[in-house]
Design a protein that fits this description.
This protein has about 350 residues and is an alpha/beta fold. It has a single domain (about 10-345), classed as Alpha-Beta Barrel (TIM Barrel), CATH 3.20.20. It is about 50% helix and about 10% strand. Strand 2 and strand 3 (about 100-105) form a beta hairpin. Helix 4 runs parallel beside helix 6, helix 8 packs across helix 9 (about 175-200) and helix 10 packs parallel to helix 11 (about 255-260).
Length: about 350
């Protein structure tokens, strides 16, 4: 029988308490890409679905994938199983996932784009199903890609990790690019708000390609759109905390945290947590940042790395995570060992 969902205001969650700066007995934890290819049960469902998009847009299957790692490892949060590129799809851009090549997006014609929330109704149904089945003590994270990162894929049609052509196009006509980002920003606000309405306890904004932009464009195309999203969600859902993850932002992490207004800040593995803990405002909950390669390796190196991170974060709001996603070759037994260690570690 499905459990009756409770509103966040009637539940006490160690995860959201940490995000809001409240005292917690230990560091809550989850892992980016905790639901995915390293789990045999995921691979079976992926084969059953036949395509990645069908897996994302079939609520019964997507809910099952979301819940799989929490059942195994008892994380403090589940993260919605979906993809950041569903927003371009909802705006009207063709989206396919090609085996061995990744996402492929159709021609860009922003003048014809209009956000169609009905296209994403399966995502919201997935959230409702997960929230009904998830323990009341476990948080549910919704998410979206940040406008800059989505624009990179939408303009280029695929990912290459540098996006030099996108940067060139954007800088040649910055005002036109601003308008394009505003379109994506508006859709992102609507999408994340609907996720919260469906039952998400918090949302994370993934800016996977934030690190490719220098100042002043970082402020213009990373910070400003995120600031607009945060401010809008605060008006609509004042009790819902928001996490930002501007990957590889480096020295700009503190500026991002201070100016966007996020409650939590994801730190990539490439940035020493000591540096972030010193530079980022103390009221911001840090999240991170074990190197996924240490999880892949397991054993003493993994546990020692986790200890160093926890000791560094002592005394400030903190959520333990990886500094990027779980590597697909990672043995599940390593994830189990790290999860047990984290659940038993007391500050």
């Amino acid at each position: 029988m499905l459990s009756v969902p409770q509103s966040q205001s009637t539940r006490s969650l160690i995860f959201t308490d940490a995000l809001m700066g409240k005292a917690v007995p230990r560091a809550p934890f989850w892992f980016m890409r905790q639901a995915g290819r390293y789990l045999p049960e995921y691979r079976r469902l992926r084969q059953e679905a036949g395509s990645f998009l069908k897996l994302c847009f079939t609520p019964e299957l997507a809910a099952e994938v979301t819940l799989q790692p929490v059942r195994r490892f008892n994380m403090d949060a589940a993260i919605l199983f979906s993809d950041i590129l569903v927003i371009p799809y909802a705006l009207g851009q063709q989206l396919d996932f090609v085996e061995g090549e990744g996402p492929q997006l159709g021609p860009l014609n922003a003048a014809t784009f209009a956000y169609d929330e009905k296209k994403l109704s399966p995502v919201f149904e997935t959230i409702r199903r997960v929230r009904q089945q998830l323990s009341p003590e476990t948080a549910l994270i919704g998410f979206a890609g940040a406008p800059w990162t989505l624009a990179c894929y939408m303009v280029q049609g695929k990912g290459d990790g540098a996006f030099e052509s996108v940067k060139s196009i954007a800088m040649q006509d910055a005002d036109k690019f601003d308008a394009f980002l505003d379109l994506i920003t508006g859709a992102t606000i609507l999408y994340l708000s609907a996720q919260i309405d469906a039952g998400a306890d918090t949302v994370q904004i993934f800016d996977s390609w934030a690190g490719v932009l220098p100042e002043p464009y970082f402020s213009r195309w990373i910070i400003l759109p995120t600031q607009k999203i945060v401010q809008a969600l605060r008006q609509l859902h004042p009790e819902t905390p928001i996490i930002g993850f501007p990957r590889e932002a480096g020295a700009l992490y503190p500026k991002y945290a201070a100016e966007t207004g996020v409650n939590g800040l994801g730190i990539g593995w490439e940035t020493p947590l000591e540096r972030a803990a010193h530079d980022v405002p103390k009221n911001v909950c840090l999240q991170g940042n074990l190197d996924p390669l240490l999880l892949l390796k397991g054993g003493v190196a993994m546990i020692d790395g986790a200890k160093r991170i926890l000791e560094t974060a002592r005394g400030r709001p903190f959520i333990f995570n990886l500094g990027h996603g779980v590597i697909k070759e990672t043995p599940p037994v390593h994830v189990a060992e790290l999860s047990d260690f984290l659940r038993n570690f007391r500050w």
